[in-house]
Design brief:
By secondary structure, the protein is mainly α. The protein is 76% helix and 0% strand.
Amino acid sequence: RNKREALQAKFLVLYHQLCAFRKGVELFEDKDRELFDKYLLKTVCSEITNLIFSDRAEWAGHKVEGGVVSSAEERTAVLGALPSSAKSPLASLSDSLSKKSSDDFMAALDKVEKEVGIECKPLDKNSERSLVFGVRQQWAEQLKAEREAPLVLLLTLQLLLLHTHKQLVSAPGRGAGAMLDKLKDNLAPDASQQLGDLQKAVVKILSGDEAKEEAELEAVALADLCRAMAVT
């Protein structure tokens, strides 16, 4: 019983994060949603899947290095150790991670919960407020300490979206342009310009071209200006 309760508690934290981040995806135009949705599949959806597979590995007596499933190969090995009746829903869950939409993952998860003994409890208002507060604090602390320009840009945009649109957005670096577009109407012209300039500097830094050194120097000053927008 204690193990079931511990699994449910870990699962619920991740599941509620996923529910909140899926709402954040809805902020964006259709052309951009796939990018954010696929990032959720790669991150929190994968964490949920690996948590469930780790539990099923223990249930089946299948030893996993470190006791935690962390890759597609390890998930395949766990499936091989399970009875035939238990394989299909778990295989569908793992396969859904390579789809384009988290809707596929949610549908597969719905079929797994009874088999595994977990419950997809809805994200109620109180839980959502607590989750948003915790994530905001975490991102703000990260931003204060962060010195890498790409991450400063990403964290700043996430916090500004949370402030202006009241939604949590989990995003890859490639989502910076779409996030900035979504914020432009809510920002002062100089703030929008500074974020845009930092984004351009980050692109130059990551491309590794001849302008990288100059872009890194420019990004230091811009990063401090942009950080101040989100943590004040």
